[in-house]
Structure formats: C-alpha cells, structure tokens
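Q: What changes when heme C is included in the input?
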Amino acid sequence: MKRWAAVIMLLYITGSTAVSAGDVPECAELLRNRCQSCHYLSRVCEHAGERSKRKWTATLERMVERRGAELNKEEQVFLVDCLQVPASDIIKECKK
Ligand code: HEC
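A: The predicted holo structure follows.
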C-alpha cells in the first residue's frame, strides 16, 4: 500500500514539474480547482496581469466572502501574486 502511494506521489510530482522548469505549477492548479466551479477561467484570464495587487486582493476577497470560493488566506495571498505578474503557468492555462 505504502509503496503504491509513493509511486503515485512521484508520478504526480514529476508530472506537474514537467510543465516547465523553474515554474510555479500551483498557480494554474488553484485556478483550475477553485475558480472554475462557478465561471469560466476566461473571466479571470481577461484580467490576469492587468490589475494591481490591491485590486486582485479585493477581487479574491469578494470571491471568497460573497460568492463562496474556497481559498484560505495563504492561498489568496499566493494567487494574488500569480495573477498580478502573471505567472507563466497562468498564461499557459489561459491560452487553452
Ligand atoms: C462560488 C462561486 C465562485 C467561485 C468559486 C469563484 N467565483 Fe469569481 N465570480 C463569481 C460570480 C458570481 C461572479 C460575478 C459577480 C461578481 O463579479 O462578483 C464572479 C466574477 C469574477 C470575476 C469578474 C469580476 C471582476 O471583478 O472582474 C473575476 C475576475 C473572478 N470572478 C475571479 C475569480 C477567481 C480568481 C476565482 C478563484 C479563486 C473565482 N473567481 C472563483 C463566483 C465565483
């Protein structure tokens, strides 16, 4: 049992880091897992890289407090940086 778990973990890790070296794969993953249940990512993508940190913070706070998105504080802070830059994996995700 334990060995299988390790193999699956390894597949998972190598699979996600294969995206591109030195990248932060968790950004796009958060978008896919936490934002798509209510709207298309295009809603997010059209503003990626075009909002200030403060504005993204306010947007995410609204999604969590008013709309019911599931992101804890750390994830919010993390995602604000992803969206403001925007991170390369977000650019990639948004091109899909
Ligand atoms: C529980 C449902 C729900 C989830 C989950 C959710 N949203 Fe939204 N989102 C909405 C609704 C409803 C609107 C339209 C009303 C509004 O703008 O508040 C919206 C609109 C938006 C907009 C366009 C409005 C604006 O401020 O430009 C952005 C950007 C956005 N969401 C980002 C996100 C991000 C990023 C996530 C993931 C962290 C997310 N949303 C997750 C419900 C949700």
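Observations recorded in class: Helices lie at 2-17, 26-34, 42-45, 53-67, 73-84, 88-95.
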